[in-house]
Specification:
It is a single chain. This protein starts with a helix and ends with a strand. The N terminus is likely disordered. It folds into 2 domains: about 30 residues; about 140 residues, Nuclear Transport Factor 2, Chain: A (Roll), CATH 3.10.450. The chain has about 170 residues and is of the alpha+beta class. It is built from 5 helices and 6 strands; from the N terminus they run αβααααβββββ. A hairpin with a 2-residue loop joins strand 2 and strand 3.
Length: about 170
């Protein structure tokens, strides 16, 4: 009798693990949203339904709201509070203002949050950036860019971390 109960319990556990894996594979990366005809759209950070499954969803949303608000209001001091010191060192204030001087970000959506290890997350974020074309990235000189980027996060509350192998999709939109 005990052996049967153990086999049933093991079967249920494996079935639930397989179901969770199947659910993760079937979760869309993001729900399709209409791209505004012009401009960058709303600067309010949205969360997909999938992200609410994570206990850190609110903290991640708050982080990205502060991050994009800092860029949109050109507030370097506020931006510094959203990233690790190594990123601040990589982008001192003068170069940050040069890079983001004409940038306005909007239509911001966090599509996924995945835990890499305790205190280390990855957030998949899409957004639209408008800027002077001459201020855009060197390889894409466009006045309006649609971005989809995987941001590494660390700490509690989380901040944006340095990424070694940056995962970014972008294109003119």
């Amino acid at each position: 009798m005990l052996a049967v109960a153990l086999v049933v319990a093991l079967g249920v556990a494996l079935g639930l693990a397989g179901l969770r894996l199947a659910q993760l594979r079937s979760v869309p990366m993001a729900v399709s949203r209409a791209v505004p005809a012009q401009g960058s759209g709303s600067s309010v950070v949205e969360l997909s339904a999938d992200t609410w499954a994570y206990s850190s969803a609110q903290a991640v949303q708050d982080l990205f709201q502060r991050y994009f608000d800092a860029i949109n209001t050109k507030n370097y001091d506020a931006w510094e509070t959203t990233v690790v010191p190594a990123l601040v060192a990589q982008q001192p204030e003068a170069s940050w203002h040069q890079a983001y001087g004409s940038t306005v970000d909007g239509t911001i959506r966090i599509s996924r949050i995945d835990e890499r290890s305790p205190g280390r997350l990855v957030a998949l974020v899409s957004f639209i950036s408008t800027q002077r074309a001459d201020s855009a990235t060197d390889d894409l000189k466009a006045g309006r860019i649609c971005w989809r980027e995987a941001f590494a996060l660390t700490g509690e509350p989380p901040v944006i971390d340095v990424v070694r192998n940056r995962s970014v999709l972008r294109g003119s939109c």
